[in-house]
Amino acid sequence: MIGGRGSAARWLPFDLYHRGGPNPTIGGQNSRRAFTPSAAPDIKLLDPARGEPLANIGYIQVVRHCNHFCGFCSNPTSPYTHDYESMKVLVDDFADRDYFGVILTGGEPTLHPELPRITEYARERGLHVRMITNGHRLADERFAEEMASAGLQLVHVSVYSVKADVEEKLRGMPDTLDRAFRAIENAHRFGVDININCVINRLNASHLDEGIAYWIEHHPYIRHFVWNNLDPSMGRAEVNQRVYTPRLADFEVSLTRALRLLHESGRTFRVEKVPLCYMTEFGWASTETRKIVKMEERIVHFLDDKQTVRQTYWGHLYSDACTVCSLRPICGGLFDRGGGYDTDELYPVFLPLKDIVLGVITDQESDPSLAARSFEEWEAEFAAYNPATVERTAEDGPPREEGAPSVGQITEKGRKLFAAKRNSDGRRAERLGVQLAAEETDASE
Ligand code: SF4
Known about the structure:
Elements: E1 10-11, H1 14-20, E2 46-47, E3 52-53, E4 57-61, E5 80-81, H2 84-96, E6 101-105, H3 115-124, E7 128-133, H4 141-150, E8 154-158, H5 164-171, H6 176-189, E9 193-200, H7 208-218, E10 224-229, H8 235-239, H9 241-244, H10 248-264, E11 268-272, H11 287-294, E12 298-301, E13 308-311, E14 317-318, H12 353-361, H13 375-384, E15 409-410, H14 412-432, H15 438-441
Helix pairs in contact: 2-3, 3-4, 7-10
The protein binds iron/sulfur cluster (SF4).
Iron/sulfur cluster (SF4) is lined by residues 275-277, 318, 321-322, 325, 327-328, 331, 333-334, 346-349.
C-alpha cells in the first residue's frame, strides 16, 4: 500500500457534505450563495433542446478473459459468459432507457465470437456503438473490416506507452505496441473513429507527454485521448499496488505537458480519476467533473457477481483540504477505494468554479449532447438535482441496479474456460513476478 488513508481523510457523500459539513458555495470564491440540494426525489434531467434524456452511455463487458496479461488488470477472468441472446437483452435494456450509446468492453471484447453480430444489433436499436480494445485482433485487417461493416463507429485503443519496452512490461507480452499501431491504421482505413485510452501508472507516469508528441506526429488523424489514473481497488491492481500505483505527483508535470500539447494542437481529451488539484488548468476535461456538472448517470453490466450497477454519484474520497477548496462541489476527489493513494497529496484550490463549469456546459463541439444554457440556468438545475444514490457513501461503490436483467451466466463451458485461463495465467504470473488477485486463484470457483 502506498501511503494509505491518512487519518484526516474521510468519505463525504455529497448530501452529507452539504448537510453537516462546511457551507460551500457555487460560483467560486466570490459567490456567497450557499449550495443546498433539495430533498426532491430522483430527477430525470431532460436535455432542454431536444426534450429527451441526456446522452447517457452504457457499458457491457462481453467477455472477461483477455489475450494480454496486464499486472494491474482490474477485471480479470471470471466464470461468467455471454451468448448472443444474453447480450441482446442488455442492448435492449439500454435502448429502452433511451441511452445514446453502448461501449463494448471486457476483458478483451474482440475475443467474443459474436461481437460483429451484437454490434450490428446495437446499431439496429439506434445505439452509438463503441469498443474498448487492446487492438490485438483489430491488427488483423479482415477482422477490422468485419467490425466496421457491422457498424462499429468508435474504437478506444488502449496504449499505455509508446516505448516498446515499457508497453511490453505493462502488457506482460511482446509486440503489443506494433499490433496496436496496426489496429489503429486498420480502423482509420475502414472509417472507424479512434480514441487512445491510457491508464496512468507508475511505469508510464514520467513520459505521458512523449506519447502525445508521438501520436501527433505519426497518427495526426487521432483527435481524442482518454486518460485514466490507475484504479488500485480491484483485481491484480489491488495486489500489485507497489509496482504499478503512481503517486499523484509522479505524473502531474508530464500529464500537464501532455494536455497542453493536445490542447494547443486542437485535440480533445478527458481525464478520469485525477483530482482537480492535479489538473486545475484543464479542470473542464475531468470525467468526474463533467459527469457531476452534467448530472449524468452510467450503467455498467459487469460480467461477474456485481452484475448491473447504476452510477449517479461521482465523488470519491475527500480530505480536510477539500473542505476549504473552491472546487469541492464539482470535484470527484481522490479515487482510492483500494487504499493505494494518499489524501495528504490533496491540496485546496482557490480558483473560480464558474470557469470550469462554463468550460463543460459550453463545450458543444466535443460534446453534442449538451444543450446550450447559461451558468445561472445550470446553477439552478444543479441545486435541484438529487441523484438517486445520494444516500450511499462513495466507499460502497455504485449500487446494484434492482430489476435489471441478469448479466451472463456461469455455464460448464464458462467454468472450463475459467479453469484453463486460471492455469495459464498462473504460469504467466510466476514467470513475470506478478501477483494474481484472490478471485483468480480461488479453487472453490
Ligand atoms: S482539494 Fe479536494 S476538492 Fe479540491 S481539487 Fe483537490 S481533491 Fe478536489
